[in-house]
Every structure is written in structure tokens, then in C-alpha cells.
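Quick start: what a row looks like.
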Amino acid sequence: MANQHSSTDGSSATTLIDDTIRAFDQGQAASPQEGMSLITDWFSSIKNNHIAGDVMQPLTELRNELQSGAPEGTRLRQLFLQLADMTEALAAKGEGDVPSRLTTLSTALRNFAGQFSTVV
């Protein structure tokens, strides 16, 4: 799947949103490698977007946590919930079908974060 979404161009934000939702729905984002690929794509997509720029900090922290080799479940849960909150806030600012996609992504992030609540 990494190859499917790593060729994102600047005009395909909805494709990246949909790819990310699919990754979470299929459980494929559970691997650190898949997560790193998605994070790289998101960095490329939002680097010049002042509205979404706040998302860079939690994405950077998530990347660092995944790169650590031993990601901490509690920290991952916290970061995914933070990203879900930010995504939900961005949905209110979107146009066209982007808000509904971002709302779906926010739900997927929350659901994924919930998997870490059972990790001890």
C-alpha cells in the first residue's frame, strides 16, 4: 500500500485522505513502516498549507515515536487523539466534500487510538 499513496501530487489531498482512511479501516496503518509512509505523504501535502500547519507538530512527534523502534502505546494513543481533534477542527474549515472526508478520517483516527487503550 505504501506505493499506492506515496506518489501524491499537490492537487490530490482528497486522495491522500481516502488512502489514509482505507489504511486505518484495513488495519494496515498498524505497522510503523506504513505509518512512516503516510506521515511522509502528509508532510508533503500540508507543508505549505497555513490552515493545516498545526498538524505538523503531532505528525512530527508521531514520526519520532515510530522511529524510536519501541513506540509507547500510551503516547501513540495520545497523538492519534490529538490528530483526530485537529482533523475534526479542519473539517469545519473545508470546502466541497473535504469536510465529510476529514470527519471520516477523524473517526478512523479515534478508532485506531482506541486500540492502544487496551495495550499494557
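That is the whole record. The chain is about 70% helix and 0% strand. The helical segments are 2-5, 13-25, 32-46, 56-67, 73-91, 98-115.
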